[in-house]
Amino acid sequence: MSDAGSDSGAPAAPAAGGRMTLEEAIQDVLKRSYIHGGLARGCRSCVKALDRKNAHLCVLNDSCDVKEYVKLVEALCAQHGINLIKVSDREKLGEWAGLCQIDDEGNPTKVRPTSCVVVRDWGEPSPAMEIVLEHFAEK
């Protein structure tokens, strides 16, 4: 299992401009959701959460090997009006979702790549959540 839930829940460090990038905001949202038990990880649990309309946000990997799975997730998000964000790195998504172990120095080890993560519960309100919601409001 992962020790990522033992962090204090502090937001990710903002970019040099003082405002978080979308990628940093997604990372913080996934971390807070994981801490509050509102994160679905893996194919089966993500599809179940999407199908039950029990999701606020879906983060999907661009380079997923199974194209049918990508089509299913995209269709469920479109059908139920769930926000969808695509990222490029499976290992980074796995790290953000807590699918890794943290060593003594605080570095992630044994990162398990994942194709999809669904936020069922935002956790506590944060500036990162506002940035993600603003991203979808602009679209």
Kindly list the characteristics that best describe this protein.
139 residues; four-stranded mixed sheet; disordered N terminus
Break the fold down into its secondary structure elements and pairings.
Layout: H1 22-35, E1 39-41, H2 43-51, E2 57-61, H3 67-80, E3 83-87, H4 90-96, E4 101-102, E5 108-109, E6 116-119, H5 127-138
Parallel strand pairs: 2-3
Antiparallel strand pairs: 1-6, 2-6, 4-5
Describe what this molecule looks like in 3D.
With about 140 residues, the chain is an alpha+beta fold. The chain has five helices and six strands, in the order αβαβαβαβββα. Helix 1 packs across helix 5 and helix 2 packs parallel to helix 3.
In short:
With 139 residues, the chain is of the alpha+beta class. The chain is 40% helix and 15% strand. The strands form two sheets. A four-stranded mixed sheet has the order 1-6-2-3. It has a two-stranded antiparallel ribbon with strand order 4-5.
Low-confidence stretches: 1-11
Sum up the overall morphology in one term.
globular
Written as H for each helix and E for each strand, in order along the chain, the element string is HEHEHEHEEEH
Q: Which class best fits the helix and strand makeup?
A: alpha+beta
Q: How many strand elements? A: 6
Helix content: 40-55%
Q: Termini, distance in Å?
A: 37 Å
Q: State the major sheet.
A: 4 strands, mixed
Mean pLDDT, all residues: 82
Strand arrangement across the biggest beta sheet = 1-6-2-3
The helix tally amounts to 5
C-alpha-based Rg, rounded? 14 Å
Strand content: 15-25%
